[in-house]
Design a protein that fits this description.
Number of strands: 3
Strand content: 15-25%
Distance between the termini: 39 Å
Number of helices: 4
Shape: globular
Order of helices and strands: EHHEEHH
Helix content: 25-40%
Largest sheet: 3 strands, antiparallel
Oligomer: single chain
Length: 152
Amino acid sequence: DHIAKFSVAPASANLLALEKQPVDLSEPENAIRRAMVYAADQDWVFDLRVQLCTDLDEMPVEDAAILWDEEKSPQQVIGTVRFAPQDSFSDARRVYADDVLSFNPWQGITAHQPLGSIMRIRRTVYDVSSDRRHRLNAVTRTEPASAADIPA
């Protein structure tokens, strides 16, 4: 019924405090991990936002380079995503995420699937990349049915 752009934005004070802080790039391959470990002992809270398409001529779906005017369609918070403190990079969790999981925006219901030419191209790229990674790792692609399926 609606076309929207989704975004996730930091909402908790511990994450907002990171704005404009430099990222340590001395070991680029570990930069994200170090940044995430910063708040591993705290809740992480994010706002889930949408920007509704109100005019397909001014807010085209096929050209992702065109920013949608936020005065005509402001970002609206529609929910909160909260992550409890956790070790996101335990050895078991890292291996599970790197070798077993597959991330793809088309894993949801049809009504929520991505729109636009860039997303259609990404669909093929995601599938090919995931198939190759799982073959090279000699593992079957599986998705968790619940949080209990994710290693600690």
